[in-house]
Request: fold
Amino acid sequence: MRVIDAGPNGGHRPPFEVDGGLRVPPSDVPARVEAIAAGLAAVPGLRFTDVELIDPAVLSPLHDPGYVAFLRDTCAERAAVREPALYPSVFPYRSGQHARTPKARIGEYCFDTYTPLLAGTFDAALRMASAAVGAAEAVAAGE
Reply:
């Protein structure tokens, strides 16, 4: 599956991850997708097709609509600020606890410091979800 390019969005290219308080090279990068595609290309009988971007509402049965809105809105905000990567550093510690400050808001849906949010994170996630939906539809159709 290949998702039809949604156009330039800055992409999801984290400058680093935070592990144990240290900056480390990121693992969630476009090259990871390319490596997976290269591995899948070696599977006999598998073919790649283009798929359309799905409506984010399709994600609601799998993800809390509040999470989808948070991710979309936070990534859009990243496009407008000078500090492009947002790293979670404050996390709720009680079930059902909600963030009261913007800094804590990112930790409400995150559970580690490994993957920051960037301007293109939501678009990258939506493209991957679109590929998953397209693949599931192809399998269900017997393709």
